[in-house]
Amino acid sequence: MEGDQSFQVRFAVLNFTLVFSEDAALPVEKESALRGGIGEMLLRQHCIRDRNCENCSFCSACIVQNFMYAKYQKKPDFVTTGESIGFVIEAEHGKKWYEAGESFRFSLTLFGNTIVYLNPLVQAIYMLGQVGLGEKKAKFQIAAIENRKGEPILYHGAIYYKNYQIETLSDYIQERKETLTNPTTIRFSKPLTIKYRGEFIQQFDIRAIINGATRRIYMLDCYEGMDTEEAKFYEDLPQIKKQSVQQKKVMRHSSRRQQSMEMKGITGKIELDGIREEILDYLLAGEITHIGKNTRFGFGKYELL
Fold first, then answer.
1. Nearest C-alpha neighbor of 282 from the set 205, 218, 194
2. Are 263 and 249 in contact (CB under 8 A)?
3. Predicted TM-score of the model (pTM)
4. CA 280 to CA 53: how far, in whole Å?
5. Which stretches make up the CRISPR-associated protein Cas6 C-terminal domain (predicted)?
6. How many CB atoms lie within 10 A of CB 107?
7. At residue 191, what are phi and psi to the nearest 5 degrees?
8. Distance of alpha carbon 103 from alpha carbon 165, whole angstroms
9. pLDDT per residue over 149-194, tens digit each?
10. Counting C-beta atoms within 10 Å of the first and last residue's C-beta, which end of the chain has fewer, N or C?
């Protein structure tokens, strides 16, 4: 892996702890509400053209466009939509009701040039706490912001840039290899939505997972403007010994389309035999990047065990 440009993608992790100011109701899956709320607050703070993006001459300089819909520096041939992969959101799930004073955690992982928007993002999330999160307008305060290693980024109400940890995927892979001696299991804690041979998979397929990881890294290379090729693995693939699968549906409300939409995927675990090092590098990188569709809503999160 040493010297491989594919793993030089930059990233930074922001772990937020929020404390609710009053009793609150939130969806079971909270990533969509967070993404929509952050986007709305960024628009309120920074839009100068009445949200008429199509006719705005400032689009290329707009913080909202450059964060929410960040463009590839080198667009892959297979990308046909405007969706970018400049960030992923992960949030606690399962709990719906919170009492005043209870805390809630979520994280933002920023890639490439979105890393520079730390201050506007913190301001947007602070403003979201005053307005309220989700349909029930759950109000909160930011109690803490930490980097991936648990060091404070928010210190006495000010951003402590010294602890804003900017890493590369190569850094992360090397760190994980020091503690992960014999990975045998992949656990998907968030739904995986991925196509293989033209169909969305209903059971785990190791070829689809590996292809998803290599494609995600290639897309991020293109986003960063790197001149790389998508890795392909056809032989000596790990074998699935056992798997457990659950079908998962997540509802999200689109403020732009003013309608609710259903997103589907699978969660669960797969037990593997024989992960060679070249493939392991991509699978470890995928722990940070997530894989498949809808990663901006928390999908495709997994961990090697």
1. 218
2. yes
3. 0.94
4. 42
5. 186-302
6. 17
7. -60, 140
8. 24
9. 999 999 999 999 999 999 999 999 999 999 998 899 999 999 999 9
10. C
